[in-house]
Amino acid sequence: MKALAARRRHPAAIALLILVGLLVTGGAYSFAAPKDANASAAAADTVAQGKTLFLANCASCHGTGAQGTNEGPSLYGVGAAAVDFQMSTGRMPMTSPNVQAPAQQDIKFTSDQIAAIAAFVASLAPGPAVPDQQYTTVIEPGTQENNEAIARGGEIFRVNCAMCHNFAGAGGALTRGKYAPPLQGIDPVHIYEAMVTGPQSMPVFSDTNIKPASKQQLISYLHAIENRPEQGGMTLGNLGPVSEGLFAWTFGIGILIGCAIWLGKKAA
Q: Residue 26 to residues 21, 38, 76, 150: CA-CA distances in angstroms?
């Protein structure tokens, strides 16, 4: 015991203890650091690539720093979700100035390029991220639990969305030449992104207003009504009284006029 105590009091003991501590700390860091460093380097490369693409394709309208110009709004705070929605649906870059950017089938950029631009814009200021797959997976009808979730999604849609997008998601006209687009055949990710970013005239439905799980239920409701069998026959686009009135006027009144002419000739 006396020998051990003597070693503890030795002048080199403190230096040896510090050296051992440094070796343990350095060893632990060497195991953790490479993965984080590689991930950070990859993220930095993606942002740099996105900035290059942005300057070449977007800066003419949104400014070299995405601060906005007279031709395009500022992109600070819009997040990766807004970039992914606008570019993946072909709305951006706009083909021509208009009151509203329509969706296009011809997508100008690859998914990797869009992700890079989204990463650059997201690095400028906090904003909504591209949603997790967990909340963009469609709930399929069948079980009672799933059917109830889809029914709740229908309630949320009718309260918050049907006044613009129509009760069946068929879309509708707005003021000053704008319109709420139809929601049939839309990728669930893009529906979610539209809700959290509020493109065009659409309000923003943040996760504090409509929870992510409720957004998933709403998306599942739209998928369900799109694929449901139409028991009543021809839907006329689910546009309501406008299309039904046009159908009645074109065919119904035409038949009545034909009958009146036939009866008039018969009486003569």
A: 8, 18, 39, 53
Matching CATH number, 133-230, of 3.40.1190.20, 3.50.70.10, 1.10.760.10, 3.50.50.60: 1.10.760.10
DSSP 3-state assignment of 31? helix
| DSSP code per residue over 150-175 | HHHHHHHHHHHTHHHH-TTS--EE-S
Specify burial of residue 194 (Cβ count, 10 A radius: 0-12, 13-18, 19+): buried
Where does 13-128 sit in CATH, by number?
1.10.760
Q: Are 114 and 83 in contact (CB under 8 A)?
A: yes
Of 222, 214, 146, the C-alpha closest to 184 is 222
Q: For 39-90, what is each residue's pLDDT tens digit?
A: 677 788 999 999 999 999 999 999 999 999 998 999 999 999 999 999 999 9
The domains of the chain are located at: 13-128, 133-230
